[in-house]
Amino acid sequence: MSARDYVEKDYYAALGVPKDAPAADIKKAYRKLARKYHPDANSGDSAAEEKFKAVSEAYDVLSDATKRKEYDEARALFGSGGFRMPPGGGYGGPGGGNVTFDIGDLFGGAGGGGGLGDLFGGLFGGGRRGGTTTAPRRGADVDAEVTVSFNDAAAGLTLPLSISGPHVCPTCAGSGAKPGTATRVCPQCSGTGMSTSPQGGFAFAEPCRNCRGRGLLVDDPCATCSGTGQAITTRTLRARIPAGVADGQRIRLKGKGEAGERGGPPGDLFVTVHVSKHDIFGRKADNLTLSLPVTFPEAVLGATVKVPTLDGGVVSVKIPPGTANGRVLRVRGKGVTRRDGTRGDLLVTVEVAVPHKLTDEAKSALEAYAAAQPDDPRAHLGAMTGSSGGEQS
Fold first, then answer.
1. For the chain, what are the domain ranges?
2. What's the rounded Cα separation, in Å, for the pair 141 and 119?
3. pLDDT digit string (tens) for 22-40?
4. Angle 23-37/46-62 helices, nearest 10 degrees?
5. Alpha-carbon distance values, 171 to 137, 164, 167, 226, 389 (Å)
6. How far apart are CA 201 and CA 262, in angstroms?
7. In whole numbers, what is the pLDDT of the chain averaged over residues?
8. For position 282, what pLDDT does the model report?
9. How many CB atoms are located within 10 Å of the residue 4 CB?
10. Alpha-carbon span 121 to 379, nearest angstrom
11. Burial tier of 209 (Cβ tally within 10 Å: 0-12, 13-18, 19+)
């Protein structure tokens, strides 16, 4: 990509974020678009592939604070109308002659120690003029998903994850050169990874085409990675899922993402955890929930009943006399394990079971109860029902 392309592209628009968007919003927007346009999800769709490349290019610049600052400054200088490249081949200097003008002079040129390389060098991974190699580049983050049981989510577990993607080539250890050989400094860019080319009377820096911006050349490439220093490999990692993880929670494994380039650090691995439903228990924050059926006599007279716990044990729960349907009883310390090692509670909701069929003896007993206990639970509705003007069915 030439410097002209660089200042003319709107990376903020590519990600759909405003120019003052914080880093977190930029990262969120990139991940959403990357999942949408990823080649694996759009096989054969060239338009989606180009969109994916554009999104990745935009994120590469805006996710790096230094590159983003350089990009904003370059856009402000060249893209706002305050300074634009002339359509012709030169600059009309004093006397009307065409004078070749190096834009590096705006930034001090060679004598000032700055130059265009300082402005654009961070974008392309290159160093300043006079540098010997291109700068290291951090590896990309990787997303993965796992599904665990309700019990494992509450207790925590360690499980294996198979991750496929670019990684340091195991044959050449990332150098790109065949074992026993070495890379050499690119003679065209002197190892900076950048080259300067005239465009319409201006001199613009862009990645060196001879070494593709690496600053190094491989004469005898590695057979495994074809000289790139990276190979698509399948790695098996052991991921620790902490106790109490919730459904949809993302776990970050630092340094377990894709390998960095040119000695840069690896990215991170983000694991989204999906938790299967339990046949008996539910969850509310750090508390477990359980519906407990009780008989009418137990609810009226009171009782002590056995209730299961998630770890396979049993606890005794006391049902107070006169317990209403829907009352919640709390069993402390029998919930989900928290980060600090403490545990939530078990919330037991009482459900008074109503039998669908009665024996003759049970029916007679209930009729006798109704006669002996003539309380009307709808007495407080009397004023309203008495003025309704009739019955409705």
1. 282-375
2. 27
3. 999 999 999 899 888 887 7
4. 160
5. 21, 17, 11, 11, 92
6. 34
7. 79
8. 95
9. 15
10. 84
11. exposed
For the beta sheet containing 269-275, the strands, ordered from the edge strand earlier in sequence to the opposite edge, are 142-148, 269-275, 250-253
Phi and psi at residue 154, in whole multiples of 5°?
-75, -35
Instruction: Compute the chain's Rg from CA coordinates.
Output: 35
- Banded model confidence at residue 96, pLDDT cuts 50, 70, 90: very low
* Amino acid at site 385: T
- Round to whole Å and give the CA distance between 196 and 110: 13
Percent pLDDT > 70 in the chain is: 78
Q: Does domain 282-375 have CATH number 2.60.120.620?
A: no
List pLDDT tens digits, range 200-224.
Answer: 556 677 788 888 777 888 889 998 8
Structure tokens at 347: 């919330």
What tokens does 110 get? Answer: 């060679």
Helix 65-78 to helix 46-62 angle (10° resolution) is 100
Least confident of 123-137, 282-296, 330-344, 349-363: 123-137
Q: Where does residue 288 rank: exposed (0-12), middle (13-18), buried (19+ CB within 10 A)?
A: buried
Tell me the two tokens of residue 215.
């600053």
Dist CA 47 CA 159 (whole Å): 37
- In 3-state terms, the chain is what percent helix, strand and coil (to 5)? 30, 25, 45
Q: What letter represents residue 209's amino acid?
A: R
| Ramachandran angles phi, psi of 196, nearest 5° | -110, 130
Quick check: 5 pLDDT over 70? no
Question: Phi/psi at 202 (nearest 5 deg)?
Answer: -115, 155
Among all chains, which residue has been given the structure tokens 């010997």? 132
Cβ pair 305, 294 in contact under 8 A: yes
**Confidence class for position 198, pLDDT limits 50, 70, 90:** low
What is the dihedral angle through the alpha carbons of 374, 379, 383, 386, rounded to the nearest 10 degrees? Answer: -40
Q: Are strands 269-275 and 142-148 parallel, antiparallel or unpaired?
A: parallel
Distance CA 24, CA 198 (A): 38
Dihedral angle computed from the Cα positions of residues 224, 228, 229 and 231, in that order, rounded to the nearest 10 degrees:
-50
